[in-house]
Amino acid sequence: MTALADFEQLDDSPAFRAVHALCERAEREIRLIDRAQPLNVAAERARLIAELRAGRAARAKLEYAPCPELSSLRAELERASVTLDALGSLGQLYAARARELTCEAELAEAIGAPDFAARAAARFPADSGVDGRAAEQMASEWAQSFSARARGSHCSDDERDAESLLSVLRRRALELGLRVRVEVRATQAAAASVGDGFIAVRPGLWHTASEVARIALHELEGHALPRMRARSERLALFRVGCAQSSEDEEGRALWLEERAGLCDAARKAELALRHLTARAVRDGASFAEAAALLGALGAEPERVVDTALRAYRGGGLGRELCYLVALSRVSRAFAEEPALAAWLARGRVSVAAARVLERAATR
Q1: What is the C-alpha to C-alpha distance for residues 352 and 232, in angstroms, rounded to an integer?
Q2: What is the spatial distance between Cα 323 and Cα 91, in angstroms, rounded to a whole number?
Q3: Where are the alpha helices (DSSP H) in 128-244?
Q4: pTM (global) more than 0.85
Q5: What's the confidence (pLDDT) of residue 137?
Q6: What is the pLDDT of residue 186?
């Protein structure tokens, strides 16, 4: 019997099944990314663009739903993490996930608070290591290739257009056997995003055919497909997620874009601007200061506002600071240890967790 088989047997015990249920319930209750979306994002986006076009500073006035009260959930997660730490390698993977969810619960309770951005640094920190340095170099180089956004010919939510993002996502999801709803959500910051059982599309965006192909690849094969595969895995960790798995999932999705030849100069510039804006958040810049930074780099008002709104979700989430770091980490890992790529394709597994699972599988 391999150590991985031992993991699977242990994972099926009552104690671990209770942990699975706790982590899945916690994620549903916390909903950090959803809660961090401003309620007035559409109106505020239009106002901010108009302010910039008039030569005035962009000062955001974002409104959020009331914050949840999650103290009892945090206490459950904290107790579970202490218990799990004593249960070997598998228990430690779940313990790290429980601690990550505790951090996210604390953030969900502080959305819109003055210290939200400082608190977010604990969940999405700046990386000072090799991958952080690689991310800074990519951002610096890729920002130089910035050019004004070209208007595509396909409106994102046009159901009559077979090549719109909405239509392509629905068609490709069926081809891949993905049982997900593809729906339109006006309040989200991203062009598209994957959630539990759905893929959301932001309306009113105009994409080129190559942008549609890239977004579809990113969302379907980078996010939705591994999550579908996770449902058939014996090890619930693939479904529940690991610490840093959401970041490495993004890194792998970007890696897939590069392999498919879809990460062109425009996409690289977009990622660079997001990174630089998130770094400004971490350095304490206001929304107006970050917008001014983007404007100085040559970004047009629409891109300035969209990029800044992403970074300042919740009051300064700055999650985009992790994308290029994760791309570097995933790319290095797959180059040095090719077997790790298959683990991340199977579900919500981080590079660090994939190494633990690979060692267990080969014993």
Answers
A1: 22
A2: 27
A3: 130-143, 165-175, 209-216, 225-230, 237-240
A4: yes
A5: 97
A6: 86
Please give the structure tokens belonging to residue 359.
């060692």
Give the Cα separation of 159 and 170 in Å (integer): 10
Q: Tokens for 86?
A: 């004593």
> What is the pLDDT at residue 264?
93
pLDDT tens string 96-108: 999 999 999 999 9
Instruction: Give me the DSSP letters along 224-280.
Output: IHHHHHHTT-SSTHHHH--TTHHHHHHHHHHHHHHHTT---HHHHHHHHHHHHHHHH
Contacts of 259 (CB under 8 A, 6+ apart): none
Cα atoms in the Cβ-side hemisphere of radius 13 Å centred on 21: 7
DSSP conformation class of 124 = S
Nearest to 311 by CA among 300, 323, 296: 323
- Identify how many contiguous H helices and E strands the chain contains and give both numbers: 19, 5
- The token duo for 172 is 């490709």
At 22, the amino acid letter reads L
Find, among 322, 310, 324, the residue nearest to 140 by Cα: 324
Residue 252's pLDDT is: 98
DSSP state letters, 307-357: HHHHHTGGGT--GGGGHHHHHHHHHHHHHH-TTHHHHHHTSS--HHHHHHH
- Joined tokens for residue 258: 């590069």
The mean pLDDT values, 10 residues at a time, for the chain of 363 residues are 86 95 97 95 95 95 97 98 95 98 98 96 96 97 78 92 97 94 89 92 94 97 96 96 97 98 94 97 95 93 95 96 98 98 98 97 87
